[in-house]
């Protein structure tokens, strides 16, 4: 039998399993879309995926890294060990019916505005499909599906990486729902999420203002200091904040106040440097106002290091599978969603992503394109970055929403809950399955990916968890 015929057979096992089980995968993704559970509360979503993998013979370790909704599903024996990342958390305030007008199912409820309902399912489906092929062929190797909670709050993989959950995989691959079919080749911004608490002394603001020390004034002065700092920062650094406690009534000098910052930069070291400057500003604000301060370090993450060798494997398999094809029904919904975008939004989204301008003429993406964001740094963060500093990691995207759909929008919730997102999910499951097969069949690719990773890490320095010692994941009590 020639190599070519073998390859066709391999494709049939993986893609055939996904096609034969498409209805089932769609059902899982619909359930998770309806659960719409927030980070670290994804009890039903994580259980659903873990149960399905367990039924297929994967052994399940539930509640890893101190998070009840984080899990690892393992199948097989020996090397190579191929990791697959899956996410399933939703976003607050994005509850939305499957309709082309903004209409929540539950007012202020949560919704899958980032498509993690199809993200986790495609990753699990790809893991099972690849396992079917290994089983049939009697090929050694291990598949590890990492059930990663709380991506939206940049918590899950950071705590998992700190607890060495990814250490026993040789590489990891994943994908993300998008509006384009391509590799996700860009870097992302490293980040710290930190709350500064100020404590002063309360007094009657009219009768005895001299007796009080205002914690709110400390917050205001800190933010003025941060705003003056901006002039002296490199352009891609982003600092954004909300005042989460500014006191109560105006006639009471506030004795407690809090400001919450996200500090983002292209490199982890730049986040650390900027964060130290913010601590000095907090010290200054406390000194000026006679207050004290404490810091709640919420989380931090690394920038993404996309592995080129793995990226090529993903892109080749995406090309083999081809773009999802959308029918009249999908195109009608896609057109309605596109018509609901704010004026100029589609142009802004496409421009920000760095994708070619000619895509603006299309409603849905109907081809696989070469990476358009290689060497660029996207203006957002992902905790996949932390995995990428521990093991070689790459990710691709498929068309799961109309071109130009804003991220974290109600339109995105609709797209990823509809047949549009489901078709992108089926494509992604096939690509993941085929990529696992390719890596297990060609261990030299795994070795090359690891060489590239080692060289990069040698230049950049190793991974030091952004989390302070002993910090526990912020699991809400139920
Ligand atoms: Zn996401
Ligand atoms: Zn997101």
Question: What is this structure, in a nutshell?
Answer:
By secondary structure, the chain is α/β, with parallel strands linked by helices. It contains 14 helices and eleven strands. The model is unreliable at 1-10 (pLDDT under 50).
How would you explain this protein's 3D organization?
- With 478 residues, the protein is of the alpha/beta class.
- It has two domains: 3-187 and 303-460, Zn peptidases (Aminopeptidase), CATH 3.40.630; 190-300, Alpha-Beta Plaits (2-Layer Sandwich).
- It is built from 14 helices and eleven strands.
- It has helices at 3-20, 22-35, 43-55, 116-137, 156-162, 215-229, 268-289, 308-321, 328-339, 345-353, 384-388, 410-417, 419-441, 443-460; strands at residues 59-62, 71-77, 81-87, 141-148, 171-178, 182-184, 190-199, 238-245, 256-265, 292-301, 393-399.
- The strands form two sheets. It has a seven-stranded mixed beta sheet with strand order 1-2-4-3-5-11-6, sandwiched between helices. A four-stranded antiparallel beta sheet has the order 8-9-7-10, covered by helices on one side.
- Helix 4 (116-137) links the parallel strand 3 and strand 4.
- Mean pLDDT is 96; it is low at 1-10.
- Bound molecules: zinc ion (2 copies).
């Amino acid at each position: 039998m020639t190599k070519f015929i073998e390859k066709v057979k391999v494709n049939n096992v993986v893609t055939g399993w996904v096609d034969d089980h498409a209805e089932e995968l769609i059902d899982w993704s619909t359930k998770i879309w309806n659960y719409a559970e927030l980070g670290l509360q994804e009890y039903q979503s994580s259980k659903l995926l873990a149960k399905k993998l367990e039924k297929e013979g994967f052994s399940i370790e539930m509640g890893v890294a101190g998070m009840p909704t984080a899990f690892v599903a393992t199948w097989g024996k020996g090397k190579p060990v191929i990791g697959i990342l899956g996410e399933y958390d939703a976003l607050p305030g994005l509850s939305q019916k499957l309709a082309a007008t903004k209409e929540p199912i539950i007012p202020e409820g949560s919704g899958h505005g980032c498509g993690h309902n199809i993200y986790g399912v495609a990753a699990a489906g790809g893991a099972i499909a690849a396992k079917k092929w290994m089983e049939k062929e009697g090929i050694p190797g291990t598949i590890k599906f990492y059930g990663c909670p709380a991506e939206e709050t940049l918590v899950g993989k950071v705590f998992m990486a700190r607890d060495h959950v990814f250490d026993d995989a040789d590489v990891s691959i994943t994908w993300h729902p998008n509006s384009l079919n391509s590799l996700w080749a860009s870097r992302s911004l490293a980040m710290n999420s930190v709350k500064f608490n100020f404590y002063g002394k309360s007094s009657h603001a009219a009768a005895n203002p001299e007796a009080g020390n205002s914690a709110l004034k400390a917050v205001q002065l800190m933010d003025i200091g941060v705003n003056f700092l901006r002039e002296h920062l490199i352009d891609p650094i982003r600092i954004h904040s909300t005042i989460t406690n500014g006191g109560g009534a105006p006639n009471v000098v506030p004795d407690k106040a809090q400001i919450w910052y996200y500090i983002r930069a292209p490199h982890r070291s730049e986040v650390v440097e900027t964060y130290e400057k913010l601590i000095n500003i907090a010290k200054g604000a406390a000194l000026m106002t006679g207050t004290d301060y404490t810091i709640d370090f919420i989380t931090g993450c690394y920038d993404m290091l996309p592995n080129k060798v793995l990226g090529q494997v993903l892109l080749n398999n995406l090309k083999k599978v081809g773009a999802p094809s959308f029918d009249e029904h999908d195109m009608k919904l896609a057109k309605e969603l596109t018509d609901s975008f704010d004026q100029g939004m589609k142009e802004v989204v496409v421009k920000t992503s760095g994708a070619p301008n000619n895509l603006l003429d299309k409603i849905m993406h109907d081809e696989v394109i070469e990476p358009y964001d290689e060497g660029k740094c996207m203006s957002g963060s992902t905790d996949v970055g932390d995995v990428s500093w521990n093991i070689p990691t790459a990710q691709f995207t498929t068309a799961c929403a109309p071109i130009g759909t804003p991220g974290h929008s109600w339109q995105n919730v609709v797209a990823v809950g509809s047949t549009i997102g489901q078709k992108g999910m089926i494509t992604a499951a096939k690509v993941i399955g085929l990529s696992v097969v390719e890596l297990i069949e060609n261990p030299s690719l795994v070795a090359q990916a690891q060489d590239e990773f080692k060289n990069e890490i040698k230049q950049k320095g190793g991974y030091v968890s952004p989390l302070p010692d002993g910090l526990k994941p912020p699991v809400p009590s139920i």
